[in-house]
Amino acid sequence: MFPPIETSSEKPEKTAPPGDPRDQRVGIAIVGVGRISVNEVLPAFAHSKHCKPVVLVSGDRAKALKIAKQYDIPESAVLDYRDYDKLAQMPAVEGVYIALPNSMHAEYTIRAARAGKHVLCEKPMANTVAECEQMIDACRQAGRKLMIAYRRQYSPLDRALLKMIREGRFGPLREFISVNSQNMGDPQHWRLKRALAGGGALPDVGLYCINEARFLSGEEPVDVIGNTWSTPGDARFEEVEEHCQFILRFPSGFTASCSTGYSSHKSQMFRLNADTAWAEMSPAYAYEGNKLRISRQVEGKEHTAELQIEEGNQFARELDHFAQCVRKNQEPHTPGEEGLQDQRVIEAIYASARSGKSVKLSPPSGKTRGPEPESESTGNLAGP
Amino acid sequence: MFPPIETSSEKPEKTAPPGDPRDQRVGIAIVGVGRISVNEVLPAFAHSKHCKPVVLVSGDRAKALKIAKQYDIPESAVLDYRDYDKLAQMPAVEGVYIALPNSMHAEYTIRAARAGKHVLCEKPMANTVAECEQMIDACRQAGRKLMIAYRRQYSPLDRALLKMIREGRFGPLREFISVNSQNMGDPQHWRLKRALAGGGALPDVGLYCINEARFLSGEEPVDVIGNTWSTPGDARFEEVEEHCQFILRFPSGFTASCSTGYSSHKSQMFRLNADTAWAEMSPAYAYEGNKLRISRQVEGKEHTAELQIEEGNQFARELDHFAQCVRKNQEPHTPGEEGLQDQRVIEAIYASARSGKSVKLSPPSGKTRGPEPESESTGNLAGP
Amino acid sequence: MFPPIETSSEKPEKTAPPGDPRDQRVGIAIVGVGRISVNEVLPAFAHSKHCKPVVLVSGDRAKALKIAKQYDIPESAVLDYRDYDKLAQMPAVEGVYIALPNSMHAEYTIRAARAGKHVLCEKPMANTVAECEQMIDACRQAGRKLMIAYRRQYSPLDRALLKMIREGRFGPLREFISVNSQNMGDPQHWRLKRALAGGGALPDVGLYCINEARFLSGEEPVDVIGNTWSTPGDARFEEVEEHCQFILRFPSGFTASCSTGYSSHKSQMFRLNADTAWAEMSPAYAYEGNKLRISRQVEGKEHTAELQIEEGNQFARELDHFAQCVRKNQEPHTPGEEGLQDQRVIEAIYASARSGKSVKLSPPSGKTRGPEPESESTGNLAGP
Amino acid sequence: MFPPIETSSEKPEKTAPPGDPRDQRVGIAIVGVGRISVNEVLPAFAHSKHCKPVVLVSGDRAKALKIAKQYDIPESAVLDYRDYDKLAQMPAVEGVYIALPNSMHAEYTIRAARAGKHVLCEKPMANTVAECEQMIDACRQAGRKLMIAYRRQYSPLDRALLKMIREGRFGPLREFISVNSQNMGDPQHWRLKRALAGGGALPDVGLYCINEARFLSGEEPVDVIGNTWSTPGDARFEEVEEHCQFILRFPSGFTASCSTGYSSHKSQMFRLNADTAWAEMSPAYAYEGNKLRISRQVEGKEHTAELQIEEGNQFARELDHFAQCVRKNQEPHTPGEEGLQDQRVIEAIYASARSGKSVKLSPPSGKTRGPEPESESTGNLAGP
């Protein structure tokens, strides 16, 4: 749109191509109006090119009405969970975004698929492998897309790192170490209830470490070791683990060593050691502010370079990828199979922690990822 | 809205209070649809609580119509410059945002005021002190607000630093050094034409250094030394200076030494030396990614701390402050007088560079800043 | 010696107190003239206050003579290993510094003790728990000091962190993650031969992670999980492990997750997660350039502070602590018992890796550390 | 000496070549036993390959005797200033290192030359241009070397940056900004007495900024602007300036903007802006811990790389360069002419500050630098 204002040695300008007119966008029903919906996903629509929010589903009608007003969603489009199946009669809704407690992911995904809607489901996909499989089956039978919201796989930072790995810039990968921890407060929060959350730190924040190691290496773990701990008497951890450490061994010998906790000051990073370089993301996994550094010898000196890569809005990227899959009828890059595989790893970690023995893991039954996201979808740096 | 999920030692949650319903927002006409409007200001409305874009004024109707569509602005609200005075008949427009070449700021501000509109004008305010004074007069006579878009004065990073300075945490300020440079390309760009831009690097990017030194110290310069340079034969700098260095001396002895250029790789930082600490912003003045570090002795060891303070969208903050001034009928924090004073400094720098002598500067005739922005207006971190 | 030149808000001056006159220093025989002796320990004597090198023991007389000349060591004080027991007749030698391949540590320590010499032995202490116990016994029976060269326990960086932990500044410790890896070349190097090295990455560089976790927490592991890997066909790893991951669980629930490798680009760091803060050393474990950062909430903002603490020469600190223990007849801070305990952990890790099961570890039979090093010994920042 | 232990992608090992046997080293008389001698220079001899300290000259015999003992300097080699000319009768002394108050540099340099000694003189070279010229003349007439102790010109960090500049990696240089400030305490210190110090912050710490800009650009300033300030009533600054800002313009248009102060918390950095990159040293000018970062576009992304380059002991490098010039009878890289030129710049800055006008500076009458230091002399990273 504009000719370059600066010389060619400067950062290319990022004038975003225009988003779709509103009447051509994929309409999304937001299912669950909690923190992630209010603080992250609803604001992200302002950065989306292909989506618009059209329905809110919530058990707290007063709150939902207030929020609906902010987003020009009419009162008639604010539904209670009892009305969920009415989505089938709302053609403006093409997809649903599931942001409910983990234990409800399976039911509300399956019902959405049966109502003819495509599904973008938050991670973790569900609480059990069995639930994951049911979700995949339901969407397949309904001919609807199922995408799990692994936002890091769409981030330009992670994709830039993946590209360098694939080009062999660092040689073979050897070791991945990562921590993702935060410090929980209220013991009554649903994330600390086993029936709702399925576990503690592991499925919530530890999941990022698992997924990142699998994503960057392109391999699947064959051997899993796990350890869990809850401090006796800490009311927060009567039902779920306080922290969890695990080692994943992949076929090439690449190994991931991770620690995830619910009682530590927020701490998020990974380091990836390869033959001729290391890469570090610190912070990692965050909604914003993630930083990538790469260290290697250049002309006989160690260079540790920070790469300035704008992530833009991670949630908008996800939404836009989902919308493109709907419009172009293609498999999401992170389909249900990707979530299922992480759930298989989680169950193996818990099994190992219970038995004190390492656990073998068979490969997934097929590919867990669809086609790469279009680079266009990673270009929405500057807004609509 | 949500009870805290994490312990009290963790970062407080930032669930943004809801923005105003659209029908209560201040309607803004965007005057000039160039880079800053398209890439920064129009997207920023998604983060604004109190504003909405309602009119586009552009000389390129085709481009403007395309953009209008993105923002649900009807075709009838896309004006040509010839129709500018019709704004007087458009009650939906309460304020204008002036994003034109510098030489047009005065005319379009004055005409807006006469049309009964409040004005938010980009920096630099104008090309001459005389123009600045006319703009102030016109708005005063029309009883309209005039605010200059000094976004750094609204950023939580700069305000946190200012707060620490005012609390005496660092002792008296001594030295400020700063650079703000970038590398221009096309010699035909209006920023390289004296008649349009008023100067080269100094009024465009060097202005940030002047304003930051004044803002952080709360003082006004009394003595100005300047130096300018243009490489002979470089087509970009036939009309305006390539780079400029200047020293500003303030009454307390605090001194700012700055360098600003149009032929260097993008480089933006300042360091502020005080009696017992230094503070550094690097990058500084950027649309995003600015980082603040403070270094001082703590328990006998030098601690260099980076403060993680989310800036959010700087343009949305400005817009919201402007809207609040309109709604509450109060003086903007950065009114025309603030822009006028910077223009006086710029003229003194140029005068010194021409004469090779230091130039005395009398104090401004009155206060240059209105009341502090409400902290509420600096809380829009997470979106609408 | 000098009155302060700067104000009290500045870094205190570090004019080192003078070292002992040479004739009062503890004379050291350097046993083994390989990399660590030539590149690190011999130059470190220039920074030592209490030691001097008086004898070299080497199998390569030509090389040793050349080096002796640099350090004013007479030809008569260059011994072959066959002459090792002649140390008993050399009263100028009060202590020996053992810098031999790991498998020789036990023999040369025991023979030194029998010759009446105090022993400062490089890490790892030995290749087996049995050897460690024999070394301790031999020194005890001979009434000689035995110190293991755990240089990190004497570094002002690590000790500053330990002090903050003990003062409760971060609340309870939760998780420690660490990596210490490097990329080996020549497959014939003794470090890649099991008989000489006792193992691969684990006893050489992984040992730092074990020791740091024990040192910082003040706890001893009760549960150990290990994993090892060697890439088939890589000539470097036919005898020893290529990389190793392990999880150590301590009684309080504190857990260390570590990865150590011999086929990765040099990568050294740890992060310690506690209740209200995290601390990170990156690089860690290095001879110089280690950096400590601590992150926590201060007045509602996350502050990530880098602490500038000069480490000075780590080898000089060790030597001086050793000399003081000799002169004052006190137990070293890191005696043989400290090395023995690490060896017990190493054997447990290997046992777990072989069996695929977690391994319980009983507590050490007594204290593993002597009195804290005097702060005087951590003040030798500026040289002799 | 040792075959490489790590793969070729790792940092090359730095086993230092052995230093000269003591009887072949250049014997140095240390003239002045103040801070820099005791804390920096005397300890640095341990890292020198070619020098040894053989005489101390001091007005405080008790202190000097204590220090002499540390360095095996016999009592007979501890001289009073009254005995200075006896150096002529001491053939073991080949060179002197002048570490006296600035006002004494000229006299003691000239007397040393007349006594037949080579001279390594601390910066600033002297208090006036006239003194500098007398020093150069005296050494020339005596056929002795005169070297000024500009340690940064021998540092591998600065030389690596210079090499990249010369190779054109960043394109033409445009702007240099720098600060070098510290916070003085005792008003009675000689550095705050005009007769002894010649000035305040400028000749002491500001000098580094001048020299660095000249060194990196390879140009000489043609136009100088200066500003000085002393806070009325501050007892420290009754005789000398508190802080000083200056702008140096070089023939190509390259410009240095610097600020130096004696009342700010220690703050040391420079940034160099060039056409396609910027380089920053922060901290800069320090005895240790200087860090070099370079930022530029690589494959469309901004990479900000920190280069890990070990500086080793800066004082040992200087001493060894000096010794090599003596042994090989060659001009030092930073001879008297280099110090003279900086003094000319200092006088121009002061003249400009007094007059409020820019001051023209003619080029130096000839080359100010001798041959580049041998790279061998920059390899003494690990000790003797």
Automatic annotation (TrEMBL), chains A, B, C, D:
Keywords, ordered alphabetically: Oxidoreductase
Tree of life domain: Bacteria
Gfo/Idh/MocA-like oxidoreductase N-terminal domain residues: 27-150
Chain intervals for the UniProt region annotation (Disordered): 1-24, 351-384
Record has Oxidoreductase as a keyword: yes
Family, as annotated: Belongs to the Gfo/Idh/MocA family.
The protein, known as: Gfo/Idh/MocA family oxidoreductase
Organism: Massilia phyllostachyos
